Amino acid sequence: MKKKLFATLLASVLTLSAITGCGGSADNKTSDNTQNADSKESGDLEIITVAATSVPHAEILESDVVTSALEAKGYKLEITVFEDYVQPNNVVDGGEFDANYFQHITYLNDFNEQNGTKLVNAGGIHYEPFGIYGGNKKSLDEIADGDTIAIPNDTTNEARALLLLEANDLIKLEDGAGLTATVNNIAENPYNLKIVEVEAAQVPHQLDSVSYAVMNGNYAMEAGFTVATDALAYEAQDSEAAEKYVNVIAVKEGNESNPGIVALVEVLKSDEVKAWIEEQYKGSVVPYEGN
Questions:
Q1: H or E segment at 132?
Q2: What is the pTM of this model?
Q3: What angle is formed at CA 233 by the lines to CA 232 and CA 239, rounded to 5 degrees?
Q4: What would the pLDDT profile of 19-43 be if each residue is shown by its tens digit?
Q5: Which domains are assigned to the chain?
């Protein structure tokens, strides 16, 4: 009789374990708060896959302040680091990843136009001031005829670099060139500067062979630079660039209201994460206050 009773109890326990183990599977994603609570209690968190560049994007996503806040909402990030500005968009558009975090809104819009992708902004998170950094020369006062300056070669970042050079009276662009400016739009070049166009990630590697370089904030940080202390000149935090170049969480069109994406954006725009970013990056990364 005891053996029969033990067998009955063991069968009940195994059945209950099987039911509990299936409760938090990815196939049953929902925004229902009760299910999220059950997932947290059982240890099962819904996975959000994100493609990101290393600094600062992956660093921010991997920070304790972000991961703990997401876990409280029932989610966990699976982050893959990319070193270029093309594949992170392709893998999201292709449905291999839920979101990416590496680019500013102007680049995103241009990428869609050039490649026919259907990516949208799920939320603006931060802004990285572009800076002019010294290569063989350590001050803009040293600029001389024929100096070389490395800049990113993709459409939007090239225009941004040229606008920064213009803001510092190093060149003058044609009227109206704006965000579509290329080297062909340089109207005046008083120092006969030689502009070296290279892929954005490669700009820091040109420092030994050029006089100056204009770098994206993330690649400057990866190279060990801080814009406030190392840049010879940089964009003002209250400039128009903060709006035009806000870094965003990008998703495939139609997924911006996915509960996991909404939760991710809410966490990244929280006061706690903003304070962490300000403390961590000392002005090289600026939290965005808009949508």
A1: strand 131-134
A2: 0.72
A3: 165
A4: 333 333 333 333 333 334 443 343 6
A5: 35-128+244-287 (3.40.190.10), 131-235 (3.40.190.10)
